[in-house]
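User: Can you help me understand a structure? I only have the sequence.
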Amino acid sequence: MDIPAIKALLADNFPDAHIELESEGSHLSVLIVSDVFKGLSPVKKQQKVLAVLNEKIASGEVHAVHMKTLTPDQWQA
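Assistant: Let's start by predicting it. Here is the structure, written out as tokens:
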């Protein structure tokens, strides 16, 4: 799994976001803190991230994704 490429892909789609990634094999843990998530339900937040990662998931490069999607206010709390 190419973590720098995945981080760049997420950064392109979530500008000005704080992004942290960890991987173990084909399992990816993602933390994204962005204003984009304001007012969205947890499911809608996850759908936004999965839409970006869809090609990586479909290719098998990423098998599982655990994510935390927070607004800056949630991150501060």
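Now, to help you interpret it: The two ends are 32 Å apart (CA to CA). The chain has three helices and three strands. Let me know which part you'd like to focus on.
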